[in-house]
Amino acid sequence: MKDPNNTRNTAPRRGSPLWIYFVVVILLGVTAGGAAFSGLSSADLDALVSTPLFWILGCFIVFGELRPIITPGSTENNGATTSTTFSFAALLYAGLPIAAALQAIAVITCGIFRGRAPHRIAFNAAQYTLSLAAAQLVLALFGNLATPSDLWVPHGSDLPAIALAGAVYFACNDTLVGSAVALHARVSLVKALRIDLAYQVLVHLALLGLAPLMVVAMDRSALFVPLIVLPFIAVYMNASVSVRREHQALHDGLTGLPNRKLLIVRTEEALATARGAERRGAERRRLARRKTADPSDHRAGLFLLDLDRFKEVNDTLGHPTGDRLLQLVAHRLTHSVRPGDLVARLGGDEFAVLLPTVRDEAAAREVAARLRAALSEPVRLDGMSFDLEASVGIALFPDHAPDFELLLQRADVAMYNAKEARTGVEIYSPAKDRNSPARLSMLGDLRRAIDRSELELFYQPKVSLRDGHLVGMEALLRWRHPDQGLLEPDAFLSIAEQTYLMRSITHHVVTAALAQTAAWWREDLAVQVAVNASGRDLLDTGLAETIEEGLLARGLPAAALQLEITERILMNEPAYASDTVGALADLGIPLSLDDFGTGYSSLVRLKRLPVEEIKIDASFVGRIAESPDDAVIVRSIVDLVRTLGLRSVAEGVEDPATAEALRDMGCDAAQGWHFGRPMDAPT
């Protein structure tokens, strides 16, 4: 799949340093090529046209340019082009004109085949011509000048001259390309040249070293040339398998974007570079005796971007259209960031953008605004036109976090704030983050707990007050911490609700609860299991999809699962909750309003909520025997729930007297220690 992060086909702005550089290199290349061809005699031209060996060389140069040997960690832009061996052999054997001509034909053919921009094709052709011309100059200094009509076959004594010519070829070629990369990515030339330098030196040593062997073989017989090509084919096939496996491991299969693994690698590289710049800046300030630091040269930024209402597209147009939309989003994002920035897909409709360098918060906001503007352009798919919106959270190094994990967590907090406040873009602010250092440490433990299966579900029964029969189970999350023992949700969920971990936790809970429910149903215990949903879950556009897939996979009806949503969440987040809760209700998932009486709901809003059960908070239920006021409140709630045609469930029932009082009030069901404590139930 084509790399969507590759923006080298984008033409440089006219008059920019990169544009000027391209023009100069192309003009020099044309001049060098023209000068070489002007020196050809008629005999040289006849030999150029009539010698089959030159055409065989040309075919292999084109093939080598079209099929570079790409090893893990490299791309088609910096892979080992085997055309180098054949073009350098042509230079040694027949001189610059034929080598430059064959290489130019290969570059043009490859450029057209790969859909490269004209400016890039012209630059690459000029780059090779200048590099070959520099190598030819070295050979000329040693008195080794070949022409198509006067071929040259090197001897052992010529190896020093060939080695020097190869070194000059490599240095010239690498410098020309490195300068273009430096101007394109806005980095120093030294940094651009150091990228994969050891790898490039080793590769060119091997490729250029084979050239004199090929010349000797060609001089014997043209039939030896294919024999030299066979090892290239074997290496190419093995490298292709390795690269394909690496690409699958580090890239998203749908969009072709880097995945979380590659994002971690690139972020760590960017942070290491920023730390190095910070150290060098500190040293310069020390030498200059300046105390004020300028952090603009060592900042890096990480964005977390989440699409709003993406689930509506999936539900309306189907998953294939949703997949095409994600591919379109990937394309728009990669063409809206700056050169050198990285766009990654973390999963679902969540993307990340890495800014290896960023001046300040204002510059980061500008990039985020550009991303949102690109996504807001109307989209037309399957005959329908609709708008996209996204919420973006920003965290900066070193301002907000010293490493990737904390940077991602704080970008996630900022994104959650942007979605909650409907501002579109938010930069991380400690004032809006309730995470303390101790809780952050727990967050790291919790992240590992998911992978180590330390999260467990305990089940507490809900019993009918009318006949004492079991009417349901509530799944309660527990964390079997290796050091702190069994932890209840209050000890860790508050921190998770503000992070991307909440999605993973909820999906784990839903999956585990459905597995246990299926086990009970197979044993003819058709009991409904309730799962608690947080405010973060109500913003998860993939929640309904996860539940639907889980039910289908286990052959369970929608009534087998119930979602409990607190009244406070719905009252504080009606704009977000209504869409998600509505989607769940459309699936037929029964909904329960938990902790009723602790929020600020109105009767009008309560009637609009797609719930079928109201759970009366334990803070009222536990005191009805001692407090007449609480008894009146509970009776009023029970009467209200009955009037609305809903089922009432009392929480926190711990003794027979309370259960009897609730039964007399007409309450439908209850749960609490009187009926059963939360218990584990191995599937």
Task: Please provide a written account of the structure.
This protein is an alpha/beta fold. It folds into three domains: 228 residues, no CATH class; 174 residues, Reverse transcriptase/Diguanylate cyclase domain (Alpha-Beta Plaits, 2-Layer Sandwich), CATH 3.30.70.270; 241 residues, TIM Barrel (Alpha-Beta Barrel). The strands form three sheets. It has an eight-stranded mixed beta barrel with strand order 8-9-11-12-13-14-15-16, surrounded by four helices. α1 crosses α6, α4 runs antiparallel to α5 and α18 packs parallel to α19. It starts with 16 loop residues before the first helix and ends with a strand. Keywords: Membrane, Transmembrane, Transmembrane helix. This is Bifunctional diguanylate cyclase/phosphodiesterase. It holds the Pfam family EAL. InterPro entries: Biofilm_reg_signaling (IPR052155), EAL_dom (IPR001633), EAL_sf (IPR035919), GGDEF_dom (IPR000160), Nucleotide_cyclase (IPR029787), Rev_trsase/Diguanyl_cyclase (IPR043128).
Question: What are the key terms here?
Answer:
3 domains, eight-stranded mixed barrel, alpha/beta, EAL_sf, GGDEF_dom, 25 helices, TIM Barrel, Alpha-Beta Plaits, five-stranded mixed beta sheet, 683 residues
